[in-house]
Amino acid sequence: MPMNNRFLFFVIHILFCYFIMTSLHAAAPIVLMPAMKIKGLAEEIKFIKSKTKRAVPFPHLVPKSDERLFAVQSSYDSKPNYREYWNISITTDPKCVAKTCLVGSLTASRTDKLDLDYIEAPFDPNLKPIPKVKIKLNRGFIVYFTPGHAEGDWHSPSLEWQQDGVLYHLSWIIASHEKQTLMGMLRSITR
User: Fold this and answer.
1) Dist. CA 112–CA 125, nearest whole Å
2) What is the pTM of this model?
3) How far apart are alpha carbons 124 and 131 in whole angstroms?
4) 125 has which bridge partners?
5) Which residues are 133's β-sheet partners?
6) How far apart are CA 17 and CA 129, in angstroms?
7) Has residue 2 got a pLDDT over 80?
């Protein structure tokens, strides 16, 4: 085999091995679907918007689900003050808001403040504190990412941000690519 052919064969072999190794170790990216496929979401957003007189920053794109998803709006009180607090939970059962059927949620609170240091930090499996990751976006907009972690039960990965005096908390059950998926969801809000 002439020298040029051996070199070309070597380069192709290296590239092939690199492709195989990276594709085996990288989990498939999460596929996003239009959020309006979630039953009742448009109605919940419209209801909260009518009570708060503000836009509801729910993502236009969410992780694709093989199960049918439902939007359930909730509050702490029997007579809620939507200007102070609201929550849209996405569940697999319209009558269930327990963690067993919860897929994700967006919460807004005027009374809560962004806790950068945690009152009590979550820990990874090696008992090291899990810090919130600061992410700077366009025009000085800052969000904080917390990876999914176990603390007695599972806490989904989340993004938090403060905007116009409101603390928003977006969390979703995501198997892989947590940060990238949540950031994709966040970017779909501002489109």
Assistant:
1) 28
2) 0.79
3) 10
4) none
5) 145
6) 37
7) no
